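User: Can you model how protoporphyrin IX containing FE sits in this protein?
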Amino acid sequence: MTQYSNRMVIVHWLTLALLVAAWFLGDELDEVRHEQGATISGYIVHALVGGAVLLFTVARLYFRRKDGTPPPVGQSLMDKVAKGVHHGLYALLVLLPVSGMMIVVNSGVGKALMSGDATLLPKKFTGVPAHDVHEMLVTVLIVLAVVHVLGAIKHQFIAKDGLMERMSLRRK
Ligand code: HEM
Ligand code: HEM
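Assistant: Here's the modeled complex, given as structure tokens:
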């Protein structure tokens, strides 16, 4: 095996698209809430996109177990760091949506969603630690994703070892 399976590749790139959408929608939620314009549908769409990230990740971990992975690129310190970054990214793909669900359960968002009444949406999230955690995890995700992409760029343009092909649908 020299490449990830087709379904692993598809889920990797779909997850990236969902993350970009969830990040954008989450930032929008925060912004409109400060302008007193938050809507129920805004929270539902963000929760659905974020929830899809969790579903995709569970499916991906199952595919990973069933299909296996290509052998490690090497044994250098940087290769070990890359592996650690992958584990960190998987952890975040689970913890981030879970912390989002915790915000809904532990704040007025849950009640507002159940009743469909936007006036019940919280103006602030003080005393809701899940909100701080969710925000912090977004920052950690961005940092790890940047490190991950820099690694991919290094392989592609400096080492020129064809690593990107491992995460491509074009079969060798
Ligand atoms: C990987 C998936 C997710 C990403 C990338 C993401 C991203 C974000 C971002 C960037 C914010 C704005 C944080 C801020 O600056 O205040 C946010 C807020 C929020 N997210 Fe998520 N989120 C995800 C999943 C979820 C899920 C699954 C739920 C609920 C089921 C959720 C519920 C919320 C809520 C309630 C807020 C607070 C919005 C506000 O401040 O008014 N998130 N999210
Ligand atoms: C433009 C952005 C991205 C590029 C170019 C990229 C590229 C790659 C490549 C080439 C691999 C295979 C590495 C190898 O074979 O050792 C990979 C694996 C991986 N990527 Fe990305 N990636 C991107 C974004 C992301 C994002 C946003 C996430 C998650 C938050 C992510 C999570 C992962 C994980 C967890 C693996 C390890 C797969 C496994 O072994 O199960 N990637 N990525």
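A couple of observations from the model: The helical segments are 6-34, 40-67, 77-106, 108-115, 129-159. The chain has one domain: 6-167.
User: Helpful, thanks.
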